[in-house]
Task: inverse folding
């Protein structure tokens, strides 16, 4: 396959940035999207230029690092996957592919396609944990009986990998799906109840502070989420937040 | 609770509550208007009651005005905040790939509803207020002794341009509610086993209520 790539190049957070066109040839349909990017970078390096910076780590859909907005969609046109799981067979010979970083005020660009998602970390630090004494007298996990449906839903919420595709896809750059998942995974379990009130209040406060938008319930996040996190988690977040504010 | 309403989630609760109020109000408005098609006398009676009852005029009417103003002002505030949350736009963005046109353009459908409301107020509300509270005529009667409400209503729908404008206004209301109805429930945290059914009901509501208003305008245009 021969392709034209239009890629966002930005040399550091202070640079204005611009789209640059590249040609790549002899791309195999079996390559992953990131392998195609590797081929491009080799080509650029051979010319003595600066390669395109992009985030990646596991390359098997687990770490959530591979943030790319491809042809107008987070992680490209296929659903339920990350960029590293996207393959070139989803494109045609002669295609022009537009590649941009995830865009949000709370995800500033570090370089080229690499964005700073530490705003997610700070939201987690504000309450995405439970306090347990682990100094030798740990309780057996099965000592507390948990309803199977609740456990399933908590596990589903816990599959969020913090990739930020929800924010990137949302017209408001809202982080509600991420925060909804992170609040839900504890709200559904008895272990999460002790800190429930502070957790949701502090995490939402941090979310607002970071400059994420409001939720318009368009559902774009749910469609683009590689882990299929459901909008139910946003409704639960709304309920938890209301309950926490009533309780004081 | 003041912190609550200054949060992103609290603002959406407030938005949804004002929207619930407006959606209930519109059903009541429709129920009265449709009487003008089937029973002009009853339409006159109830219009007179609504127009002169102090509880309606000085209790419900201010609440309604507040509800409408709150809703669109908050709509604009949310829109500005949401735009600010993405300072650099995508060069290429395929919004249709993951969300409906209605959900992505609430500010446009809402904006056109607002334009419609201004015209609607000039057409009906200002003349009412003028007749009743400036000229002090609370009788609700024409010089010939008949009630004036039905007369005034049918008269308004004679010019085709106004009928067309009303139709367009209600198409935008329909688009607004096709997303808004179910969205408001999600905003207040209601997403459960009833949600599927509720979405279906919401679609029916969002199409039938505006269609009903359009029918009324067309009916009076072609019958008078
Ligand atoms: C007066 C002009 C209006 C404007 C400017 C307006 C604007 C908006 C905007 C911008 C939103 C989306 C808020 C968000 O981003 O989440 C919205 C939501 C909504 N609007 Fe309106 N609107 C107007 C009139 C109406 C009317 C007359 C009704 C009902 C009869 C209505 C019902 C709704 C509903 C149900 C929602 C969804 C609420 C939610 O998502 O929680 N709107 N409106
Ligand atoms: S909710 Fe989905 S899209 Fe958002 S960060 Fe988690 S895994 Fe990624
Ligand atoms: S590189 Fe880890 S999810 Fe894509």
Result:
């Amino acid at each position: 396959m021969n392709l034209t790539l239009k890629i966002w190049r930005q040399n550091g957070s202070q640079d204005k940035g611009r789209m640059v066109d590249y040609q790549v040839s002899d791309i195999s349909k079996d390559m992953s999207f990131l392998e195609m990017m590797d081929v491009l970078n080799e080509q650029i390096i051979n010319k003595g230029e600066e390669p395109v910076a992009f985030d990646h780590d596991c390359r098997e859909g687990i770490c959530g690092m591979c943030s790319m907005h491809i042809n107008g969609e987070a992680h490209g046109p296929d659903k339920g996957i990350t960029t590293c799981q996207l393959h070139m067979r989803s494109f045609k010979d002669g295609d022009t592919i537009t590649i941009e970083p995830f865009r949000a005020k709370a995800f500033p660009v570090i370089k080229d396609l690499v964005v700073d998602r530490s705003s997610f970390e700070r939201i987690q630090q504000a309450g995405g944990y439970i306090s347990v004494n682990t100094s030798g007298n740990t309780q057996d996990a099965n000592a507390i009986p948990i309803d199977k449906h609740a456990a399933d839903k908590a596990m589903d919420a816990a599959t969020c990998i913090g990739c930020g595709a929800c924010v990137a896809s949302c017209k408001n750059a809202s982080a509600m799906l991420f925060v909804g998942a992170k609040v839900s995974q504890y709200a559904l379990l008895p272990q999460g109840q002790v800190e429930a009130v502070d957790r949701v209040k502090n995490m939402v406060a941090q979310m607002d502070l970071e400059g994420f938008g409001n939720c318009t319930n368009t559902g774009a996040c749910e469609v683009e989420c590689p882990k299929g996190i459901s909008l139910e988690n946003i409704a639960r977040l709304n309920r938890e937040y209301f309950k926490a504010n009533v309780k004081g | 609770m003041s912190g609550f309403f200054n949060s992103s989630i609290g603002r959406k609760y407030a938005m949804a509550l004002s929207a619930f109020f407006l959606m209930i109000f519109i059903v009541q408005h429709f129920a009265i208007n449709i009487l003008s098609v089937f029973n002009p006398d009853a339409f006159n009676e109830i219009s007179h009651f609504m127009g002169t009852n102090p509880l309606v005029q000085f209790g419900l009417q201010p609440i309604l005005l507040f509800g409408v103003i709150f809703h669109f002002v908050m709509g604009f505030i949310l829109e500005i905040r949401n735009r600010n949350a993405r300072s650099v736009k995508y060069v290429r963005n395929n919004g249709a790939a993951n969300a409906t046109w209605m959900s992505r353009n609430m500010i446009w459908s809402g904006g056109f509803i607002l334009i419609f409301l201004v015209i609607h107020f000039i057409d009906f509300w200002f003349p009412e207020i003028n007749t009743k509270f400036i000229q002090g005529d609370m009788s609700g009667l024409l010089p010939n002794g008949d009630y004036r409400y039905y007369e005034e209503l049918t008269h308004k729908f004679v010019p085709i341009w106004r009928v067309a404008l009303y139709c367009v206004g209600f198409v935008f209301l329909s688009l607004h509610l096709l997303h808004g109805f179910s969205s408001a429930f999600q905003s207040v945290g209601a997403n459960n086993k009833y949600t599927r059914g509720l979405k279906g009901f919401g679609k029916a509501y969002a199409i039938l209520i505006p269609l009903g208003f359009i029918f009324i305008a067309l009916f009076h245009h072609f019958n008078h």
Q: What stands out?
A: The two ends of chain A are 60 Å apart (CA to CA). Chain A touches chain B through 49 residues (CB under 8 Å).
